[in-house]
Amino acid sequence: MNLKKLHPFVVLLVLISATATTGCLTVPQNELDELASIGANFLKGYLAQLSIPRQKGSNYEAWNIKLESFNLGAISIKQPKRCQFRICIKGAYLRARADWKAWKKIWFFTLRKSGSLRASGSNIDLCLTIELGTRNGRPYFSYVPKSCYANIGKFDAKVYNTSLKWIVNLIINLFEKRIRDKIEDRICPAVESAMTKNVAKLNQQLLANLHLRG
């Protein structure tokens, strides 16, 4: 079996298969840490492509809201239940951009501005649970549905390349929380989609290349 041709998750499960027990996989901590790192980096690529629907308010509109990067923080893994492993990323951060237009009435006239904004999110926590086990002597990998948790601790959006930035940034401050909340709300669905779409391929590769005893 050529490990170089296998998906990284499969390679890891090949390594831990020697310690398998009936029903569950007993995994040494160093290999659990490797699993967490592989899983986090796997999700990093999906989250970096996250996009948010157009947002509108009484004095603003924002569109083309996209993440430019998602960078990992500290990664940990624990085993809360038999066969289940909780992967957590603490202190991650992201960068996002958006196009916008905003308007604000000042005395007897209305100020109208448009441009692009840059946003950064930090102190991001992201956790999810996976299951590793054996069925009929064969290994399986699965994501535990609705086990994802995401929180953006700090979010800051600013506009550039426009006059009267201080006034426009006051307007931006009124809706940056909405953008933050929308990004936060999209993280777990993106995680669940990524895990669900790839779990069949992972299991297929496992069953084709591994033959574990129960």
The best one-word shape is elongated
Write the H/E string, N to C.
HHEEEEEEEEH
As residue ranges, the low-confidence spans are: 14-22, 209-214
Measured as a percent range, the helix fraction is 25-40%
Main sheet summary: 8 strands, antiparallel
Instruction: Report, as a whole number of angstroms, the end-to-end distance.
Output: 21 Å
Number of H/I helices:
3
Using the CA coordinates, give the radius of gyration: 22 Å
Q: How many E-type strands?
A: 8
**Which structural class do you get from the secondary structure elements?**
alpha+beta
- DSSP strand content: 35-45%
Average pLDDT, to the nearest integer?
A: 77
Can I get a quick summary?
The protein has helices at residues 8-16, 29-47, 165-209; strands at 51-52, 55-56, 60-71, 74-81, 84-106, 109-135, 138-143, 149-159. It is α+β, with helices and mostly antiparallel strands and 214 residues long. Strand 5 (84-106) and strand 6 (109-135) form a beta hairpin.
